[in-house]
Q: What sequence folds into this?
């Protein structure tokens, strides 16, 4: 599911929740999950592991491509010596090999995404636990991701940015300001979810 669809569904959920709740004042909080995640020491370790695995995958793919290119070059040099049947057979073999390389590259990408999700899961669960605790302490009715906010009245006392509180609950200091873009964070990573933080 794309980020755009996720944000749209989150916004629909928010609107439905606000309509369903009584007309009394709602206590709403929001958190910049990216800012908190990027400040967690464990996140740096995850990124290092991901980068190491990616480099290894790239090396292996490069070796496979180089081997394929050698086979293509060898065929080009020898094709004039082959009869039509042998030439057609070699061409089929090379086409099949090329398709195998493409499938291998796709499978490796899928495997990398899966491994990254698995490595991120403990961090997301830890983050969600802190969000739940802060939400309960501050008696918030719901907690949103900062990314889905379309408008915020900064003078309102009913909408609170709890990013720093969540970071404090985790015992970390933010290394970036809430709202600052995090280009190194995989935007396809699943958002934290659970009770207490109605996202």
A:
């Amino acid at each position: 599911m794309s980020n755009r669809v996720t944000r749209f569904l989150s916004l629909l959920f928010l609107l439905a929740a606000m309509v369903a709740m009584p007309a009394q004042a709602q206590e709403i909080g929001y958190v910049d999950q990216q800012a908190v995640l990027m400040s967690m020491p464990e996140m740096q370790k995850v990124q290092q592991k991901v980068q190491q695995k990616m480099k290894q995958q790239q090396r292996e793919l490069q070796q496979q491509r180089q081997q394929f290119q050698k086979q293509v070059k060898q065929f080009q040099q020898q094709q004039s010596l082959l009869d039509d049947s042998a030439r057609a057979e070699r061409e089929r073999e090379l086409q099949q090999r090329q398709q195998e390389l493409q499938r291998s590259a796709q499978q490796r990408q899928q495997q990398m995404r899966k491994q990254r999700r698995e490595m991120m899961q403990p961090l997301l669960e830890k983050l969600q636990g802190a969000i739940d605790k802060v939400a309960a302490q501050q008696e918030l009715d719901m907690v949103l991701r900062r990314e889905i906010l379309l408008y915020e009245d900064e003078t309102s006392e009913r909408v609170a940015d709890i990013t720093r509180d969540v970071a404090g609950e985790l015992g970390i200091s933010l290394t970036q300001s809430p709202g600052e873009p995090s280009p190194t964070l995989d935007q396809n990573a699943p958002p934290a979810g659970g009770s207490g933080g109605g996202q």
Remarks:
- The radius of gyration is 25 Å.
- Strands lie at 28-31, 142-145, 159-161.
- Confidence is low (pLDDT under 50) at residues 19-23, 182-199.
